[in-house]
Amino acid sequence: MKRITFVVGHYGSGKTEFSINLAIQKKIDYLLDLDIVNPFFRSRELESFLNEHHIKMIASTPLNGNYGDLPFLSKDIFLPFQKSDKLAVFDMGGNDAGSLILRQFSEHVSEDVDVLMVINVFREQTQTADQIIRQINSIEGSSGMKITGLVNNSHLLKYTTKDDIIHGNQVVNEVSKRLSLPILYTAVRADLIDSTLQLSGETLPITLYLRKTWL
Amino acid sequence: MAKVLMKGNEAIALAAIKGGCDAFFGYPITPQNEVPEYLAKYMNEHGKVFVQAESEVAAINMVYGAAGAGARVLTSSSSPGIALKQEGITYLAGSQLPCVICSVMRGGPGLGSIQPSQGDYNQATRGGGNGDYHVIVFAPETIQETIDTMKESFDIADYYRNPVMILVDGLIGQMMESVDFDRPVKQRFLPPKDWAANGTKNHPGRRNVINSLYLEPKELEDHNLRLAKKYALVMQNETRYEMINMEDPDYVIVAYGTMSRVARSAIEILEQAKLKVGIIRPISLWPFPKQAFDQIGENCKGILVTEMSLGQMLQDVQISNRGRHPIAFYGRSGGVVPEPEEIVSAVQNFEKWRVE
Fold it and tell me: With A128 labelled, which of A11, B17, B97, B269 sits at a CA distance of 20 to 30 A?
């Protein structure tokens, strides 16, 4: 994988859970929570857990514990660009609003950077290839960055079936063909992984770290 | 429409559109911001009205105006914002205007926090407005139930000509669940709004006045008695609750909204510990389901009330219990969501938490 990965996508597409799973499985050095949109369910809530996995957490709100709602960024967000031997995942806020702050990184963008678009075709506003492409255009417009790869994260939480996974794969493949963008990962809930399914890209088993166990 | 994955606040917004909402007036506040954000984007597409007002006070008075003209109106806010709307809410109730108010609770009092809470039970069921009035309050526990209730709420508001409140906490607003928007809604006969002040060409020869001012004491008392009669009808028809595992339980937990989901997990753990525990889940908070407490079996050793607040619904349970069973209380506040194990421990150590 590239040294720096920006994770963008529609609200609720699963950017944060994907980022945490990716960071743990790929032994990333830095996870940056740059979500300035959401008040809860942000990766910064897992700071101590990530520390156990030797992942340093850098969050956008350093003040007021981890419970602020203040849209400013830590000066440490540029740290991964200064340490050329470290891997970093940037977990961005949703939609064009959340990816707007990517603009300040544009001078750091090089070949060693991936901008990944997380897609869940069961989200109400990204159910079809047309809707997904519109969402990609709007995120590219606000961030000033080009999406370099797709992540298929299509699921219905505990109601996900095998057919849902296949359907997600079909829709995201259509987007991939129309935009000539590779599908780098297909995220599948760990207990649903089935080697007979022909899924695009690397299959990333997903454990839900932020969701309450009783939900 | 097949199942889709929705965030609670977006679901509230789309369910309002599906419920026939004509207009939204509101002012931003965390943790309900996705409601106006979604509606700002999509009300227009559906040919409906969206206005971001200059304040919560302005928004609720815009609701008054649009409801008075016969529109189906929604406003949405969170704890301190709902506090600001209280004056408008009593005017709406006093003028018998239908509307739907969505309240996504956060920590309090005052500015509090932005984390989930149930600290506005009293605010919702008692209200901070003046006079003998009630708001019909529903507290769903899942996003699906929130959608179904929201869709129906516009009909209920129109039927009784009264504000209806959907009360959820920030967790329901912010979390994701897979949901279906096309579940059927109970059909109600809704008379034409011949009382609406929507221009004399719509009601020739008659001026409709929307008003809550009655200077003559007898006139105002008659008005209050008419309202009281209506509220009695609401109590009779719209009281909602769910009885879970209530066949002769050892203990009963009373919980609503998010807390009832924590309680559902807790009773499964307690079952393994050979304790049979049931749940009374009030769905309508006003009217409060008093009758549910008449159905508690004789072998019940006590009632545990749990809230993400420090003893608000507890008072309604005490009134409904009428001294029949011992009552204990376990609550967390400030934005802390209890884990099922805490509820398990509170049941197992009932005497420690006993209040009555």
Answer: B17
